[in-house]
Amino acid sequence: MNQTLALYDRLSSFPLGDRVFSVAFSLKAPYFRTVRPRVREVRPHRAELVVPKRWGVQNHIGTVHAIAVCNGLEAAMGLLAEATVPEGYRWLPKGMDVAYLAKSTSDLVCVAETTAADWAKAPEVDVTVHATRDDGTRVVEGTIHLWVTPKPSR
C-alpha cells in the first residue's frame, strides 16, 4: 500500500485524524495550504476534500476565487493519484481543463475520480474532477491530465 494511503487510513481511524492528515498533507505540499483543505476521503480512484469559504480565498464579489477552486481540485487529484499510482511509477500533472458552472458561494466539496480503465491508458491518465456547493450545485467540473511513468532508477 502506498505511504500516503497508509497514513490516511491509520490517522483517519482516530478522532480528529482527518484533520491531522489534512495538516500533514498541507505541510508536504505547501501551496495547497492556501485553501486549507479538509480531507474527507482517500482511496484508490477517489479522493474528496472540503475547501472552506473564508476571506483568504474569496474574490472581489465574495465568492470562492476560481483559482482557489482549481487548487482544491488539484489537491484532491493529488491524493487520488498518490493512492492509485502503481508501485514503481510516478505521476505528473500535465494540464487541466475546467468549466465554471455557477458561483462558489459556500464551502466546496472537491472530488477527484478515476477508474481502473483510466489507469490502463497510462502513460496518459485523465482524472475527472468537480466541485460542489453546500446546496448540491456543481460549480466547477473538468479533467486533470496526468503523465504516469516508471520512476527513474537511482
Automatic annotation (TrEMBL):
InterPro entries: DUF4442 (IPR027961), HotDog_dom_sf (IPR029069). It holds the Pfam family DUF4442. This is DUF4442 domain-containing protein. It comes from Mumia zhuanghuii.
